[in-house]
Structures are given as C-alpha cells and as structure tokens.
Write a structure and sequence with these properties.
The chain folds into two domains: 116 residues, Rossmann fold (3-Layer(aba) Sandwich); 146 residues, Rossmann fold (3-Layer(aba) Sandwich). It contains nine helices and 14 strands. The strands form two sheets. A seven-stranded mixed β-sheet has the order 3-4-2-1-5-6-7, with helices on both faces. A seven-stranded mixed β-sheet has the order 9-8-11-10-12-13-14, sandwiched between helices. The mean pLDDT is 94.
Amino acid sequence: MAIFLTKDSKVIVQGMTGATGMKHTKLMLGDGTNIVGGVNPRKAGTTVDFDGTEVPVFGSVAEAMKETGADVSVLFVPPAFAKAAVIEAIDAEIPLAVVITEGIAVHDSAAFWAYAQAKGNKTRIIGPNCPGLITPGQSNAGIIPGDITKPGRIGLVSKSGTLTYQMMYELRDIGFTSAVGIGGDPVIGTTHIDALAAFEADPDTELIVMIGEIGGDAEERAADFIKANVTKPVVGYVAGFTAPEGKTMGHAGAIVSGSSGTAQAKKEALEAAGVKVGKTPTETAKLARAILAG
C-alpha cells in the first residue's frame, strides 16, 4: 500500500522543459513513475525524448489533465513564477501538487495555500521547499533518490530532505510503504498530522518515523494528534539539538523563540505522547528496528 502516490498515479511535470525539470523527470521515469506529460505554454504541442520515452508537452495543467487523466503534478518552477503555477494546478483541481521549489516568498506560499482552502481543498499541496514523496517500487514524485531503499513496512514523514534520505538509507533493509518530505518552510501544505493520519489508515504501514526540526510548534501539535489518534508505534527525531538558542538556522521555519520550538521541548512533547525519540538519526533508526523486531 501507499499514501498519496501509487503505481497508478499519472504524473505531469510543471517546468519539465527547464534544466532541473529535465534532470529530475529523467530520474523519476527511471524509478518507474508514470509521467504522462509536461506543462510549458511556450512549448505546447512538442514532445521531449527521455531515452526513448516520448513525453508530450501541454499548454496548461487543465489541458494535460483532459488529455492524459493526470492526477499528480510535480512543480519545478522558479520561485517568481511558482505561485501562479500552483494556482493554475488548484484551478484545474488536480488532486495532488508537489511543490519542489525552494525560496518561494512566504506570502506567496500563504496565498496559494489559502487559495486551495477557499477552493474546497480539492488539491493536496505537498511542500514547498521539499523533496516530494516516494512509494518505493511504485512511483516517485520529486527528487528523492529512488535507489536508496525498497518497499517495506515503515511510513516516513520528514521536514528535512537530507534527513529523509538518511533515514531511508539507515532502514533500507526493512523498507518503506511511502516516504513524504513535507518541507521546512513556515507555510506548507501537507503537515506532519496529515501524513500521520494517512499512515495510521494504511494497513501496510506497521511503524511511523517522524522527523521534525527546531522552530514553530508543528511537532508539539503532531504529538497531541498522536496521543489522541495514532495506535501504531511512532519513532521521532528532532533536528537541532546543538543549535545555539535564538539563532535562525538554515531552514526558513527553524526559528526558535525562548524555550518554545527548541529540540528539547519538542522531544519532551513527543515522549509525553508515547513516541520514542532518538538523539541522532542513527539512534532513531535503531529504535525503529528494535520495535519492529518486537
């Protein structure tokens, strides 16, 4: 099983004909992703050859959906044009929009998130500033390396891209149902809680790994949700135990004010909800392994 993305997902790529879009479309195709089109109004009607796979380019998301039945869009659109691209995807009512782009202005992210809400939440947004999501052996929508893991029993949700990859590699022998990188910006679409609820409902996910980081209160809210709603074991890791207090760190959302938002405060909230929390990614993987070994 999987959450949000399966082998039947039909994927289009907004920004496919740019350098980044071309590179990652080729990699996604190599992972078995069913990519049915790209979107670029200036190149509509052309096709792009990816090692013998011809992918058509459409003028809009709505046209691509009409012609191919696409239900997922992955966005590799530069920050200045990302808001318009996401709004186009929302207007077309594509069920899933995966926004990889880094550096989108927070007010742009807030605007398209609010727009999706106003339109009745018909489009699930993952990101922005995220690695996307992968269901190993089925489909890969984003930039997660497809060769570092295999299908298995763990569900992973993470704010950090690189820590997503590390955790998948650490637990590669057990494997994953799906891994979702939600992004570390202050305003994101899909949250830890959304992914936790989906993994709780997925019969093949036996254990959930949740990776957070300093700043904000998303992990504390996730802890409350776990306590009330999640019956499966959850193992957690919070990046930033060694971060100096009061400093803004690399991720836009990793801002700590006072004791609120610190790694220690988040660790305590998660442990109070019954989550085992590792001090390092490797320790977190060991905790997961021990629980599954039972």
